[in-house]
Amino acid sequence: MKSNWNNSEAKKLKGDLLELRVYTSNLLGNDEDLVMHGGGNTSVKIKETNIFGEEEEILYVKGSGWSLDTIKAEGFAPVKMSALKKLVALPELSDIDMVKYQRMAMINPNAPNPSVETILHGLIPYTFVDHTHADAVVVITNSPNGKKRIQEIYGKNMLIIPYVMPGFILAKTIYDMTREVDWDSLDGMILMSHGVFTFDHDAKKAYEKMIDIVDTAEKYLKKQGAKEVKGVKKGQVDALQLATIRQQVSNLWGSPVLSKLDNSPPAIGFSNLKDVKKITSRGPLTPDHIIRTKRIPIVFSKNSQKDLDKYVKDYKAYFKQYNQGEKLLDQAPRWAILPNSGTLSFGPSPKHCAIIEDITRHTKKAIHQAEHLGGWNALPKSDLFEVEYWSLEQAKLSRAGKPKAMAGKIAIVTGAASGIGKASVESLVAQGAVVAALDINKNVISCFPQKEVLGIICDVTNTKQLEKAIEQTIVQFGGVDMLISNAGIFPKSAKIAEMDAKNWQRSLDINVTSHQRLLQLCVPYLELGFEPAVVFIVSKNVPAPGPGAAAYSVAKAGLNQLGRIAAMELGGKGIRVNMMHPNAVYDTAIWTDEVLTARAKHYGLTVEEYKTNNILKTEVTSHDVADLAVAMLGKTFGKITGAQVPIDGGNERVI
Ligand code: ZN
Description:
alpha/beta, L-fuculose-1-phosphate Aldolase, 4 domains, elongated, binds zinc ion
């Protein structure tokens, strides 16, 4: 591990203590081997004059809800040192009182709540205090003879703190342990099964002491031959097994969740370890991870339902053994080992899954390294239970707010790079769903920056490409609940007598056959989906055809009929299929200003009159169509199947 301190960057901060605190906090936060997703905390002590002209010492400490990689000055909570010094001297302090008195001691009521380690930061007599959960150090503390190893590596100037619960108890333990200690003689503090503290009056020195300690641990591991997992190359993906697991885990969760497969070579290598069940059954990397990952993952065999039943039974037994009046949390696993395939992360959004994947990637590496030192020793279950059910940890999760209507649900949209398809993707994401966006246009990859969208280049007339796209969707999200089958073309107008055979066939291929193929391929996954539903984007041309459009209208009529039959065939399995007939949607790529002006002129209308040439005299936009399509996939239309809904501002030929 190397220092990323940059003199010219630091110089720009002109010695401003809080800005320097932000700078080195970001340096720490940007290294995943030090902290991840809200882990760790930092502080700086600054003397300030208040409005009464009195000088006060203020501790600026990381506010909860902020992560070190992105924290800014306003992410630090300013707390009066005078209050912290009194708090730490109390014989005991409940969590509720700790939160209350820390908040009362703040000089800015709008700042975030101070970190749970605030009192500890306050008692360390240095300007800058840095705290991380460095992987390499925790690997050593969590292996046999961990304490002895740490003593050997760092010598007597490293203060070693036995594991105690974070918060007031930890601060109090260190307060009692350091009453006689000469702080100036210390290089830092290592907390068993937890992490590292460094401190100095200089921002750079405090930061670089951290880097040195972790670098020493990394070198020690290397010398001990603690290697990383050997990677195994990707093989076949069993998409149906993945979708089944996602359904079973969602059932346990009580609402649909995503299931993301990590089938990178190290993940497959780890899943293939002979003793994977044994080594993952001991506990997490650091106790604060437990609220994200639960204590242990599930290891799947061929019978995933049986494995889940056992996981729940074991979880309830663990709860029964340690609870002292707490309320039982849900029993669904947060991550899983799928031997020969990799590891899975479960959560209601891609963000949740990404956090779990990041944490467990480090956990897997750490467990494997500790095995080389003689075996991974996580904390006892009783300590882990205390952190899992600690109200101050659970509070971190409850900030998320009410989930959106389609949270955890997965959709496929075709023709997604423009027009109605693109609008549909956006509308689904706005409702909380994730979407596989398919299009033959390669822009589909770049036009959706959202994490909720997986852009896939796909020719819908190519069955192999469709199969591959569905597989990618299942690997990324876990299943398919909804389908907006939208891809289509409008072939050149031609009378039947002058029809070009190729144009005719191409219209049938894209406008009807591709939809049948896609639906056929999706059915096994829709059967495993939640409130599964399909919408076919058809056309006003079905109820009201026009001359010269045989290739288009015939194919669209076929698509409409396909939807009607699908509604009958799939209804018994709970899958709804509805059709929409949009007309005159002009905000799409094919309707350039030039084309619009020409068409309007042809009918002797202005462009505005042409666009609103319907009973309601209103313009129908692609977002109007998309919002209706998404509504038809949702609860409002939950008891409707086989319906055909026109969306055209009212058309006498259709009515
Ligand atoms: Zn910590």
